[in-house]
Every structure is written in C-alpha cells, then in structure tokens.
Amino acid sequence: MKFVARAPAVVEAVQWQGRLADLIAEPWVAAAIADGHIRTERNMTGSTVYVLTIDGMTRALRGEWIVQGADGRFAVLSSEEMAAAYRWPTAETEASA
Questions:
Q1: Which of 5, 11, 39, 54 has the fewest other C-beta atoms within 10 Å?
Q2: Which residues partner with 77 through β-bridges?
Q3: Which domain holds residue 48?
C-alpha cells in the first residue's frame, strides 16, 4: 500500500497484524523477504517479523507499520509515528508516483 510523506515522497507501507499471508500479498514485502530485508519466524504463539533498519534487525510488533522509503530503506513505525509522518495518497499523488 502506498503512502505519501508530508514532504513529497511516496513510500510503501503495510501494517503488521500478525498474519504472514497479509504481508506477502504485498509484492514489495515478498521481494524484501526474498532479499533478506524482512525476516519471518513462526512459533507456537504465532508469527514474528523482523525488519532490517538503519538500527539493525528490528522486531515489528502487532499494529506497527513496516515502511520502505523512497530511498529503499526500511523502518518500523508505531501507528502514531505513521500518522504524524504520512498521509493517504490522493489521485494527484498516485499519478506522480
């Protein structure tokens, strides 16, 4: 899903809800898993996702957003951080992406 930064930059983002199928439905996430930027683990209590950020491997907690910036870097953001930094795309921003 595309989001637009308050500064004009379009990023990819998906909210981690605990279901791996929801993540890999996003082609950019599937590619990031294949190249090692996102790692998944399944255990008896569910699934865990780790994202390679500039700070190293970061665990994404349920409800947090996994974001790939226009520069290709990854981040894990809380819903509050996501709302403060990004907005939903409009037809205008979709056309320029």
A1: 54
A2: 65
A3: 2-96
